[in-house]
Amino acid sequence: MMCPPLEGIRVLDFSRLIAGPYCTMLLGDMGAEVIKVEQPGKGDDSRAFGPPFINGESVYFFSFNRNKKSITINLKTEEGKDIIRELIKKSDILVENFRPGYMEKIGFGFDDVHKLNPGLIYTSVSGYGHTGPDKFRPGYDVVAQGMGGLMSLTGDPDGPPYKVGTSLADIMGAIYAFQGTLLALIARQRDGKGQRVDVSLLDGQVSLLTYQAGIYFSTGKSPTRKGNQHPTISPYETFKASDEYINIGVGNDKFWHVFCELVSLKDIEYDQRFATNPKRVENRDELFPIIQKIIQEKTAEEWLKLFDEHGIPSGPILSVDKVLTHPQVLARDMVVEIPHRKAGNIKLTGIPVKLSDTPGSVKLPPPLLGEHNEEIFTGILGYNKEQIDSFRKEKII
For 255-283, what is the mean pLDDT? Predict the structure, then answer.
């Protein structure tokens, strides 16, 4: 097995909360050395998010900070800034997710950093990006989900808008930041130059609109909430069996004919209202109760077994506990366990990208605050014990 793809790449992580830390975690998963720069005595804000906590350590923080090393630096001191400048010279990537203008204010904006290390890739994740009239507005996940249109499409048609049940805007921002950083690394191989990667939560949400945006562009009408319906495919939604809800996706007319045979709907199979997908979409309000009446006659397990046997896309709606103990999820190593110095053995979600020859791995647990001060300051920067003790005494670290 070869080395992971980002072996030998060093990342300075100035980020906190989710969007930045999830990006740097993905870089760490693929072998990069990620050095998380934190405030002495406090650290990443998410270290205090909870409950739950395990022996005082935040489970929320665990979720975004494996495969990293933590150092503490007081960036209000000139000595602390000097330490960071030396690390910048020895790094390949810097990731930050402060509001635009903050890094420039403390002397570590892109132009400042580029002078120190012209080859460094500078990745910024913010609510609205570094251009445009809203660039200085604070950005949070729920705000981005609302402004990006996602909440206008999520929820019951007759109810209030809903955000997605996880921090989708933050996580999508992180994934785009990861992608942009890798693209910048590829470009650097060609020309040797670093560049800025500018990612916003809002841009990420807008990119998810895809065919919903297409509907607006082509019709001039804004799509609205449809619950679990699909705007252009039917039946493609959630039905209630006798005991539980299930999802059924009849994605084309071929599936429709098989589906009608299985659920005893031969009498409407070629009905002009339902014979083609466009007609089924047009007449969805008539079709849904016909199908629902039949689906509720059997258990979810009975229907899913039947649909699986005949290739009809379908599946259960699993709670989180059932997802994380599901045989398919476990077979794909999407649950991993690693020892932590304070919390004991902890479980985390796994790495979703599987590389056959150079796979990533979970090698380091989420770090304790400042856990790697000595390792980084001596091993990379060459400070001796007396200097480190002096830094600590003067509250520089």
Answer: 97
